[in-house]
Amino acid sequence: MPSKSAAHTGTTNYRMFIDGEWVSSSKNESFDVVNPATERRIASVPKASRDQTKEALEGAERAQPGWEDLSPLKRASFLIKTAQLIRRDKERLARTLTSEQGKPLFEARSEIDGAASNFEYYAEYARRIEGDVLPSDNARQTVMILKLPIGVVASITPWNFPSATVARKLAPALITGNAVVTKPSSNTPLSTIEMVRLMEEAGFPKGVVNVVTGSGSEVGDELVTNSITGLVTMTGSTEAGRTIMAHSSSHLPKLILELGGKAPFIVWHDADIPWALKCAIWARFWNCGQTCICSERMYVDEKIRDKFVPAFVRMAKELRLGDPLKANTDLGPMVSDQERKTSIDFVHKAEREGDKIIIGGEKPKSKNRGWYFEPTIIDDVKQGSPLVQDEIFGPVVPILEVDSFDKAIDHANDSKYGLASYVFTKDSTRVLKAMNRIRFGESYINQVGPEQLQGAHTGFRQSGLGAEGSRYGLECYTQLKTCYVDWNDKPSLPYLFPYGARK
Ligand code: NAD
Questions:
Q1: Interhelix angle 164-175/72-88, nearest 10 degrees
Q2: CA-CA distance, 305 to 309, in Å (whole number)?
Q3: Tell me: the pLDDT tens digits for 289-343?
Q4: Cβ of residue 120 lying under 6 Å from some atom of ligand 1
Q5: I need a labelling partner for 158 at 20 to 30 A (CA). Which of 12, 96, 233, 338 fits?
C-alpha cells in the first residue's frame, strides 16, 4: 500500500522516506538541486536532522526481523517488481538523472537499465544464498555454516552514478534479509528518491527501505556512528572512506568501501590500434570523465606513440560537447562548478610545472552557461606528477611514453589506487602477464567497461574494502554463522571433564 503522504509537495519539493512515511525536514532546512547544464535550480530536498536519521535507522531496525522472516523467494518478488517499475518509468528516470547529473541521455538510459538489472540479478539469488554443510571431526555430528542477514545496512552513495550505485547496494542487502537506510549525494538526490518511491509502489513492507538526504558530515556521520547500523556500504572518495572508517571504529560495523581510482590504460604496438583508439576515447571521456573506472593515465608504447597520440587527440577534438538531453551530444557538463574547478586547477598546476597541454584545459568559450569542460590531453608527463598519482575526476588525461611492457606494468602499479586498469595487446604472453601482474581489482583487456553484474567490483590498496556485484558482493551483506550439531542418541565426548569418559 502506498503511504498516505507523497514524495513531493508541489512538483519540485521532494521529501524523505522514513519508516513508511514521506516527510520534510524536522529542522525546516532544505537544499537546492541544480541542473549542471543550465545552472538552474530544479528541486529542493530536505536536510535531515540527526534525530530524523536516527528515526530512519530505528524504523529499519523494527522492520528487519519481519523482513528476514519472509522466504527469500518472497523477498525476491519485491525486487522483481521494483525492476519492472524502473523499466516502466525508464525514460522519466533517465531524464531526471540527466537533469541533476549532466550525463548524456543515452548514458542515463543505460544506467537506468543497469539499476533494474541489479534488482533482477540479485532476485535470482533467492535460492542461492548458500551456506556449507561440512563433516565433523566427531561421529554423528554435523558442522553447518549459515549466511544470515547482518541487520540494518546504511548505504551512502556518490553523484556520478546516482541510480546504479544505489541499486547495486540495495538489491544484495535486501535479498539477504537486511533492512536499509540509504543516503544519496547532495548533488544528485532525486534519482535515489525516485527509486525509493518505486520501491514503495512495489510494496516493500513499512520501514524496510528508507531514504534520508543531507550532508555527509551530519546525516552520513549519524548513519556511520549509530550502533544500530550493522554494515556501512559506501561508494565515494578515498578521503571520505577513510573518515568513515575512523568514525565507525566506536562500534565497528562491517564496511564495504568502494573508493577512488586512477586507472592506467596501456596500449602496445601489437594491439588493434583503431579499436584501441575508440576504447581510449570512451574509457576516458564517458560521463565527462567522472567514472571511478575511467582511464586516468595512458602508457603508450614508444613504437606507436607518434601515430597513436595525434590520432587520439584528433578523435577527442571531434567529441560533441553540449546539452545532455540532445541526441547528438557526446559530453555533457561536469556535475558541479566545484568539480570543474578541481579539474582546472590540476591542469593549471601541471602547466606551471612545464607539462605540455595539447588540447583543452579551459571552459569552452562557446558556452556561457553550464559547467562544461573541454576534453584535455597533456603530453610527456612524468610518473611522479600529481596528474599521474592523484585522482582527477574530469575529462583530463596525461600521456606517458614507455619503452617496455614490464615498465608499463610497474608504472601502472605505482599508485595508491587499484580499482580498474586497461591493457591493449594481441600478444597472449603479454595478456597473461597483465592478468597476473597488474594489481588492480578489474582489468579490461582489449575492451572497455562498464562492469557486468557477475563480475566482482573491488579494489586493491586504497581503492576500498569488500566487493560489489557477483556472488562475492552478495556475501558481503551476510554474517557467517557456524552451527555444530550433535545427533548422537547417546552423546559422549572424551573432553567434557569431569562428566565425559576419559580415554
Ligand atoms: P564523496 O566521497 O564526496 O561522497 C560520497 C558519499 O559519501 C556522499 O553521499 C557523501 O555525502 C558521503 N560522505 C562524505 N563524507 C562522509 C562522512 N564523513 N561520513 C559519511 N558520509 C560521508 O564522493 P563523490 O564526490 O560523491 O563521488 C566521487 C568519488 O567517488 C570519486 O573519488 C570516485 O572515484 C568515487 N567512486 C568510486 C566508485 C567505486 O566503485 N569504487 C564508484 C563511483 C565513484
A1: 160
A2: 6
A3: 999 999 999 999 999 999 999 999 999 999 999 999 999 999 999 999 999 999 9
A4: no
A5: 12
